[in-house]
Amino acid sequence: MKSPLISVIIPAYNIEKYIDDCLESVAFQSYGNLEIIVVNDGSTDKTSERIERFSSRDRRIRVINQKNLGLSEARNNGLKLAKGEYIVFVDGDDTIDKDYVAKLYEALTRTSADISVCGYSGARKFVKTGKVLSREEAIADFLTQKLGTGAVVWNKMYEKAVLKGLKFPKNRLHEDNYFTPQALERAKKVVVIPEKLYFYRKTEGAITSKMTKKRLKDALDAIEDTKKFLKTKKLDKILARELEAYELNQKFYLYKLTKSPQLEEFLREKRTEIRKNPYTSRGLKIHSILLRW
User: Fold this and answer.
1) pTM higher than the cut 0.90
2) Which of 139, 171, 199 is where one domain is finished?
3) Which of 11, 33, 154, 202 is the most buried (most CB within 10 A)?
4) Which of 199, 230, 258 corresponds to the end of one domain?
5) Burial of 50 from C-beta contacts in 10 A (0-12 / 13-18 / 19+)
6) Integer Cα distance of 66 and 246 in angstroms
C-alpha cells in the first residue's frame, strides 16, 4: 500500500545563505512521498534563483513566486495548493532531521491523533517521554508550556482536515500564536514525541526578526485574540488559571524586550496573581519579588 502524500510548505524571503540547506534537508527525508511547496515571498536577493535551481533537480518541488505579502500569506497560499493528506510547515532558513516527516507521521497514525508534535533546537524544555494529549490538555500546554510543545507551527504535523478553512492572519506578526490554539481546538488528540527533529535558526533579515512597535502591538493583539477565541469555545473557564498565566508570562516576555511602562504597570497590578498562579514562570515570580511588584 502506497504511503500517503504529505505536503511540506516552505515560505522563503531573502535567505539565499540558508535556502539550499533547508531544501536539501527536506528533499532527503527518509519518507519519500512528499509534495514540497516553496513560496518565494518577493525575495530581492538570490533566493529565487537557488529555489529554481534546486527545483529543476527534484520534481516534487512546486514553486510559487509572489510579491512580498509576508509570512502569513506565503503559508496561506501554500495551503491553498497543498494536495497532501497531511501538512507540515518548514521555514526556509531552518532545517529538519532526516526522519522528521517519518516520525511525525508514524506517531500520528499509530495513535489516531490529528496533530503530532516534536521537539526543536533552542527549546528550553521538552518532554522526555511520549504523550497523547486530549484537546483540552494540548491547549493547556500551549498556554503554559509545561511540556514545551511550543506555539510554533513548524514542529507539528497536521491532518489536512483539521486545517480546513483555517488561515494565518493577514498582515499580522506573531501569526503562530493566533493559528496554533485554533488548530489544537479542532483536534481530538495530539501526540507528542520526545525527540528534537526540527532545527531552528535565528537569522537577521528573515521573515520574522526584531521587536518593533508593530511586532509589540501584534503580540498583544494575539494574546487578546486567544482569550476571545477560548471564550467563544467555552474553554476560558475550564482553563482559567492556564489562560491567566499565558497572559502574564507573555506580557512579562514582552516587557523584558521593550521595558514598556504600560506592561510594567500591568504586571505590578497583577503581583498577587503572579505569585499565586502555579503556571506563571519562575523568572516572572522572581522578578516580581526582587522588584517588590
Assistant:
1) yes
2) 199
3) 11
4) 199
5) buried
6) 35
